[in-house]
Amino acid sequence: MKYNKIILAGGNGYLGGVLAQYYRELATEVIILSRTQKAANGNIKTLVWNAIEEGEWVNALEGADLLINLCGKNVNCRYTEKSKKEIIASRQQPTELLGLVIGKMKAAPKLWINVTSATIYRHAEDRPQDEETGDIGYGFSIEVCRLWERSFFETDTPKTRKIALRMAIVLGRNDGAFPRLLKLVKFGLGGHQGDGQQYVSWIHEQDAAKCTEWLLAQEELSGAINCAAPEAISNTDLMKLLRKSYGIPFGIPSPAWLLEIGAKLIGTETELILKSRWVMPKRLLDHSYPFLFSKAEHAVKDILSIRI
């Protein structure tokens, strides 16, 4: 095996599943830290933690090659005061706990990746936002990212390199945005959302996983890194691409006022759809990360070929 131990904190969700499958052939052990017990699946094992206090799970981090923290309450909800507090706490508390534990270890993980969000940048239709010249935005979702990254980088882990991986929208076949957008297309509702000019920064699920392993080998890299494909796509073009790839000739568009009504009905926020996320992975490109999927049409074709 190439690696000894890979730790996925909060790894029971969609991206955690992608990462666990990616690393199962590469590592002796893949350990998921979760609030709920799950039976072992080969070398993928689950350890229970509450993400608030130390427990037996701490011993598993000793000698790990890589720790990836995926903890965080889903932001796909209405931003009530209660949900806002839960969203922030669900990111800060596990991050601070992991930092406290790692800081005391003799054989600490070599690399700790906190999967944060590319939504930290402002609404951008004028130019791409990279790690050096990008503008941090304002509003609740950006504040979440700022507090989260601050908690991460303020932890004292002298033996562990740290990367805040600002993840774009992950495209894959089983969960996340892709199957939901595809469902709209199937029902003839796959037109643009809002004015359709907002950019969508995305990353194929296999690049999201491969990128973490690549970063393990790039020992000179730390700090904030954008995890997005080099070519963002407008909402209009993305929906057109999905319709064409699936063989649906038309799609009814959804104006902003209709999205607002729909968002209230299903308990989410229109910002998740209407914000323009134009993110450039400058640091990945500068260090020649070999993207598996750099163009949206290739990523969509690949995902649809796996579905059928």
From TrEMBL:
Domain NAD-dependent epimerase/dehydratase: 6-226
Domain of life: Bacteria
Transmembrane segments: none
Pfam family, one: Epimerase
Residues in DUF1731 domain copies: 255-303
Family listed: Belongs to the NAD(P)-dependent epimerase/dehydratase family. SDR39U1 subfamily.
PANTHER family found in the cross-reference section: EPIMERASE FAMILY PROTEIN SDR39U1 (PTHR11092:SF0), SUGAR NUCLEOTIDE EPIMERASE RELATED (PTHR11092)
NCBIfam families: yfcH (TIGR01777)
Protein name (database record): TIGR01777 family protein
Organism name: Pedobacter cryoconitis
Organism lineage: Bacteria, Pseudomonadati, Bacteroidota, Sphingobacteriia, Sphingobacteriales
